[in-house]
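Case study 2.
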Amino acid sequence: GAKATWKLPDLPPGGYEVVIRYSCDPLEGGSVSISEQNFSLTGTADTTLKGPSEKNFGTLKITPGAGTITISARTVLKTNLMDLHFIKLLPSNH
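Prediction:
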């Protein structure tokens, strides 16, 4: 049930690539949900053996007035999902 929520800047509506930088020890990891008010993505936080890593979780549609983006743990392998460093939203070319 752990989650982190951020206020979105005034983004134009559309698709955004969601890139997360995180670190994850061998006995950590699990599935992640990334959502705004109407749309969501799911993905897996995999072990990062060589230190922090960036992973593209796909394209999330941002709707007008979305307000926030939330990352939440869906499943956790052991006791910790990951150590989250940052999240980037990059305008999609699609």
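The chain has a mean pLDDT of 92.
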